[in-house]
Specification:
Helices cover 41% and strands 19% of the residues. The chain has eleven helices and twelve strands. Strands 3-2-1-4-5-6 form a six-stranded parallel β-sheet. The protein has a six-stranded mixed β-sheet with strand order 7-8-9-10-12-11, sandwiched between helices. It folds into two domains: 190 residues, inorganic pyrophosphatase (n-terminal core), CATH 3.90.1640.10; 123 residues, Diaminopimelate Epimerase, Chain A, domain 1 (Roll), CATH 3.10.310.40. With 321 residues, it is of the alpha/beta class. The structure holds manganese (II) ion. The site of manganese (II) ion has 6 residues, from loops.
């Protein structure tokens, strides 16, 4: 989108000498990390800052590329000129941004609108984009090989190796790889690294513990897990049409659900998650095929409700046909 590109280019010109902070969502993934890193390449005085943990593919890539960042909660808004948020539009995943109210200068994201929206002075939202990295790759006026490589890795990772992608996604990947001087295999190794032993074991345990139901011709798997709910839901959805993995967070007294659907499923999971969350005083959203929610209720009840809400929506699809 041309208008978006113009917003971005005049932004980097205006703030080229400013002390900005570039942040993203908690449980930082490759799209978040690499998008922030790429934006920093054109805002030389900016620092990267992230909340809590980083997922392990992002962690290894961050170490490999020697990318430096600060824990965002340690930074004082008064010491900086403003905040740029990438790959995130919700305070749920970046609660630290609340301290920056009025200083959020720019948001660049591809997630759906939600009720806890982070609104920047400028907002570049493209829900059609399959990654934030591919939005940014179309904007940047120049690339170092490292930035192009990081964007390649993020595009491969956030599309789940092209489970989603529009023609421009492939164009941008090809362009970034060429600019990086590296080949696809090398990017793929960072985008989809081999899992650690404990994670492989959790996925296999989850397969053993899951419950399976069939509604309107679709297989639905639910499971309660002690950790790694998004890894579990994405792994199970290699086979089940829809997977819901729930984890009980004792400190917060809430359940976190991660859900994934195969591309044949005609229901939008972000809507299912938003509905379940609203019934249990939580928040939910995400993408049609990959979504999540929090809920102030025990995991077994929340999972039951996830299946019911999904089943109702599946039946309604049948009716409309
Ligand atoms: Mn993303």
């Amino acid at each position: 989108m041309k208008a978006h590109k113009e917003i971005f280019l005049s932004f980097i010109q205006k703030y080229s000498n400013s002390k900005l902070v570039i942040a993203s969502h908690s449980n930082v993934d490759l799209d978040a990390l690499c998008s922030a890193y790429a934006v920093k390449s054109v805002l030389p005085k900016a620092v990267l800052a992230f909340p809590e943990k980083m997922d392990s593919p992002a962690q290894s890539f961050c170490e490999h590329m020697d990318i430096e960042y600060e824990p965002i909660e340690k930074l004082k808004p008064a010491d900086y000129d403003g905040l740029v948020v990438v790959d995130c539009s919700t305070y749920v995943l970046l609660k630290e941004a609340k301290a920056w109210k009025g200083k959020v200068l720019l948001v660049i994201d591809h997630h759906h609108k939600n009720e806890n929206m982070i609104e920047g002075k400028e907002n570049i939202r493209d829900e059609d984009a399959k990654s934030t990295a591919e939005i940014i790759s179309t904007f940047l006026p120049s690339f170092t090989p490292d930035v192009a490589f990081a964007l390649s890795v993020a595009i491969i990772s956030d599309t789940a190796r092209f489970k989603s992608g529009k023609p421009s996604t492939f164009v941008e990947l090809a362009r970034m790889l060429e600019l990086s001087g590296k080949d696809y295999k090398e990017a793929l190794e960072f985008a989809e690294p081999e899992l650690e032993l404990d994670k492989k074991a959790s996925v296999l345990e989850a397969f053993k513990a899951m419950h399976i139901s069939i509604r309107s011709g679709y297989t639905i798997a639910t499971v309660e897990v002690p950790a790694h709910e998004s890894l579990v839901s994405s792994s199970i959805s290699e086979f089940a049409d829809v997977a819901f993995a729930a984890n009980w967070r004792g400190e917060a007294k809430e359940t976190r659900v991660s859900s994934r659907a195969r591309k044949s499923v005609p229901v939008m999971l972000n809507e299912v998650m938003a509905q379940v969350a609203s019934e249990y005083r939580g928040s939910g959203g995400g993408h049609p095929k990959a979504a999540g929610c929090s809920a102030k209720e025990k995991p077994n009840k929340v999972l039951e409700r996830c299946v019911e809400v999904l089943a109702e929506k599946l039946e309604n699809v049948g009716v409309e046909k």
